[in-house]
Amino acid sequence: MFKTLEWTDEGVRLIDQTRLPAEESYLTCATYEDVADAIRRMVVRGAPAIGVAAAMGIALGLRDAEGDHVSELRRKFDEICETMAETRPTAVNLFWAIRRMRARFEALSDEPVERIRRELVAEAQRMYLEDIAANEAMGRNGAVLMPSAGGVLTHCNAGALATCGYGTALGVIRAAVEGGKKIHVYADETRPFLQGSRLTAWELQKDGIPTTVIADNMAGAMMSQGKVAAVVVGADRIAANGDVANKIGTYTVAVLAREHGIPFYVAAPFSTVDLDTPDGSRIPIEQRASREVTHIAGKPVAPEGVKVENPAFDVTPAKYVAGIITERGVARPPYEESLKQLAEAATVEIS
Amino acid sequence: MFKTLEWTDEGVRLIDQTRLPAEESYLTCATYEDVADAIRRMVVRGAPAIGVAAAMGIALGLRDAEGDHVSELRRKFDEICETMAETRPTAVNLFWAIRRMRARFEALSDEPVERIRRELVAEAQRMYLEDIAANEAMGRNGAVLMPSAGGVLTHCNAGALATCGYGTALGVIRAAVEGGKKIHVYADETRPFLQGSRLTAWELQKDGIPTTVIADNMAGAMMSQGKVAAVVVGADRIAANGDVANKIGTYTVAVLAREHGIPFYVAAPFSTVDLDTPDGSRIPIEQRASREVTHIAGKPVAPEGVKVENPAFDVTPAKYVAGIITERGVARPPYEESLKQLAEAATVEIS
Predicted ipTM? Predict the structure, then answer.
């Protein structure tokens, strides 16, 4: 099985998601700048994977930073975190990861610098393992919500490739299939980056889970033909009121699901919940280059000079969301309350 | 200005829509088989353009058919019509064009074969001119429904490239702009064939009408941000009850429009209305090759062997349609009645 990201002595090793499915190749980022660049170029993508990759990038940068005093290390730490924070603004897991690494750094600030270096590498590795454990817990919590047989539609890739392994939305589907449910996945291709056709179909095919790729604009037709019993997607940021920022097109799927009476679920680790953001209108939405829309495989598919919108994400208001599946349990409306309750619950411990 | 299709002495000349926008090249079909192949390969596409191209193909085939007796010519006529009818099943204009050519043939069956040959060429050319006149009338009828300023979203290409000129949905937009309305077009790219980004953006750019290309899955986000004041699309077949078959993804747009309180209009010549089809469930939906979804510009964008759905069209139930703009006037719900009334109205005469 592939590994989406991995800590190695040579640096942070990533499967290159820009080359899938044609080629399964790996890239080792030897410096923190390389990691930041890989996040920016979407070599690694998916909110949970971005978070852990950033943590590993921070650990890598500190490991290789010169300096015998904690003050020197802290200056470097700030510089690295600034670089990481600027890579992609929407996924809150990135900022969560930075905060967590900073908290660990500060807790160790009276220790010898060599110990700080070592412990921050260990912290990033711990986050890696916790992410997989959280996804498995999400799978257990969400599997019961999946139909015993039927179509489940997903948008973008919220799978093993978007996380450290197993996946969030696809983790729920995997757990349901492992539990004997007969699920057929409809994977929206997810323009412009094609995470659905390139990544979701690829990893589900490896697992032998039946999958049909559709163009994004076919979701309505599939639903009206009764082929979709549930929708489950990931998230890049969830506001305190349950509004969900996720890959562009998620909102369209949510509206369609409601029109057809199909439950629309979001699966995400609790680190995706941002209680400091009251609602979706406050979530910054990354705009990406026009060229992602106007060119495919290097070939122009739109006239030169045409205007393009290319928001990477959209916001689905909480009223469309039937449940938010986390490792701590499933939040149900009203989300202001249920998310706050989960925030107070214990985190998943890895055994 | 380009011509989408044109009768010439050498055959039916078509702009090659598979090569736009990178290359503006023309293909001359010297035989009716060439015309049928061009329709099948979507060198020419769009319901009204398909109808007239088929009529020209029939005229071409008969012109070059051997035989001194009407019975020989009729055998050839039947053979040609069968080939044409099998090219694309959804667009009713194709069958309308065949019926009209057949009626003309039968009306002339006592005439010398040379006259039949000549008159059928003339009939196809008349259909060409009538199509442009119908589009201009549609434009006049529909322009008043467009906002005086604001965004208008369209899906696929229902423009000059989908017709003999001026366009249906884009004809309405053109007429509104010519009348002084400040319209900004949002063009869904329209996967998998990309008629929106490749064709709609190209022809609107030539006219200097401001256009923004978006991926299909961005339509919901644009609407929720208040950027879209109206939607206007074309149609491939309209059932007697007002259900509309149009390019895959149209239904998704219609659901989104309703959710946002945005009027959703359909513009089509009355030849698109099929009163013999009671409702949308009876409209045959063409399934196209998986490769249109799995490959872009010859490059695989999905893992080998993955399942794909690729319906070319979907059906939008009449309840989502605010009005059907035709050259005879605008039909409003209930469509059973309003379409029947328009059927009884006089056709547009060309001056």
Answer: 0.95
